[in-house]
Sequence to fold (108 residues):
Amino acid sequence: MKQPKAIYRVSFINQDKVYEVYCEQVYQSDLYGFIEIEELIFGERSQLLVDPGEERLKKEFSGVKRSFIPMHSITRIDEVEQEGVAKISDSKGGPVIAFPASGPSKQR
Fold:
């Protein structure tokens, strides 16, 4: 019996918007501080009912083989049983700022 593929729901912040996408591959990138997502999934269930948010994401990610998302932009990654509707929504609570990263400090 063929084992079903894992599906992941990835939520991240991009330009003061919350993106929620579905994909089949999520892993830490060789690029330091990035998460890679591959094989994005967009609903193909019905051509009669079109979700404008999902269509916008589909257009934005068309031709994208792999996306590198800064680790500090990720808000949540869930493994789900089936894909849902990909969407873009406004972030609640005002502007979103990056989590402060600690790096090497200059000592004088």
